Structure formats: C-alpha cells, structure tokens
Amino acid sequence: MAMLEQARQAFMALCSERGVHLATEVRVRPLMADEAVGTKAGPEFAIKRGKEVVIEATFKNSRGQAFTDCPSRWEGTLTGLLSLDLTNVRNRAVFVAAMNAVLRSLGAAGGTVHCRDDDLARCGEAIAREIEKRFGKKRTCLIGLQPAILKGLAFGFGCGRIAAVDLNPDNIGTWKLGVRICDGVTELPELVEACDLGLATGSTLINGTIDEIMARFAAAKKPLVFYGNTIAGAAALLGLDRICPFGQ
C-alpha cells in the first residue's frame, strides 16, 4: 500500500504543521444508499444494489466519505486513526474517509462528500467533457465500472474508443453500451497498452489496486486521472490528477 502510506505520512505532517490536536475524536459510520446518494439514483449503481457502501466520517463539523465493499463503524481519536493497520481493508476504508473529513476541516481538500440525485446522472457527461477538453477524444480505459461515467464516455467519444475493467465478477464479461466489461486483474495490462489514458475510480486506494494501476500507466508513459470523492484527500496531499465535478 505504497500510495496510501505516502498519503498517511503526508497527512501526519500536515496535522503536525497545522497544530491539529490528535486527541480530537473522529466517528465513522456506514450510510444507507438513499442517505448517501439520494432517492433518484437507479439500480444500475452498485450502491443501490448493496454491492458497495458509502461510509462517512465526521471530524468537528466536517464530513468525509469513502466507497467500500467492507463497511464498518469506528470511533476513536486521530492518534488511533493514524496508527491503524492499513493492510486491513476495513481499516483502509475508515482511514480514507476520516482523512477526507479532517482535510476538509483544514481547508486542504474539497469534494469529500458524494454527489446526490440528479447529479449522479449528470456526472458522466461532465467528466467526458472535461476529458475531451484536456486530452481530446482519446482511447480511454475506465477502471471501475460507474454506469453514468461509462455512458458519458461511450456517447461522447464513441464506444469504439472506450474500454472498461471491473473487479466484480457479476460485471466481468458483460456488455454495456457496446463496451465489454473486462477483468480488472487479468486484462488490465493489455488495455493499458491499447489505450491513450486511464480514468480510475478513487476507491482503488481502498481495494488495494492503486499501486499496480499507477505503476502500469507510469511505465507506459500515459496519463491517469482519478474520479470520485473517495480519493479527494489523497489526491490533494500527493498531487494526483482527479475529476469530481459535483462532489460536495
């Protein structure tokens, strides 16, 4: 977990620099789907089917969230948070959500809370426009299936320019909007070579795949952009490229 450990070290340094009281409490809890993303999101979104959960951390009056398939509750001080064993996926989710909340409180990160209702559907088009503005209509590999983003890219660029990978076996091998959903483990290497850029979910920071993904794109000398609120804090600390048009 090299990238997450780098984020932890940078987070600790910033807390020290800003004089953050490490005895301050943080609370983390899972959210119900409607509570996290509103009532208008359709069943195509994994959170509505119970495949993923948003956990929310509160620090003082600020909130930070993270997507995970291993949700849990946690309460403790910043000292306890900073000492969590990050080889455990539940701890990684708690740490990332809490780090987002603290960085939001410090004004060091924004968009730490997921968008809701109609913004979920609008997100894909907005991301596609931003990608096109910055890179052109390039062959893009979507890492982590997000239906609205896949739709925005497929409609905006043409499905022939889009590849997609996911880790959920229910999605792998299916076709969506003319795009085959590939295996995020076995098929990623060839898709990195075939594409011009990557657009990866920030939850790779939690599921343990971010280091390999970043290494592959770096070796191929191709840009990698992250999307979503989960990686808000780490992206701010480490200077990672991130798009999250409607994050709150």
Task: Give structural notes.
- With 248 residues, the chain is α/β, with parallel strands linked by helices.
- It has 2 domains: 2-105, no CATH class; 118-228, 3-Layer(aba) Sandwich (Rossmann fold), CATH 3.40.50.
- Helices cover 41% and strands 21% of the residues.
- The chain has 10 helices and 11 strands.
- It has helices at 2-18, 33-37, 78-82, 89-105, 118-135, 147-157, 188-194, 204-207, 210-219, 232-238; strands at residues 25-30, 53-59, 62-68, 74-77, 140-143, 162-166, 175-176, 179-183, 197-201, 224-227, 242-243.
- The strands form 2 sheets. It has a 7-stranded mixed sheet with strand order 7-8-6-5-9-10-11, sandwiched between helices. A 4-stranded antiparallel sheet has the order 3-2-1-4.
- α10 (232-238) links the parallel β10 and β11.
- α5 (118-135) packs across α6 (147-157).
- The longest helix is centred in the middle third of the chain and has 18 residues, at 118-135.
- It is globular.
- It starts with a helix and ends in a 5-residue tail after the last strand.
- The mean pLDDT is 94.
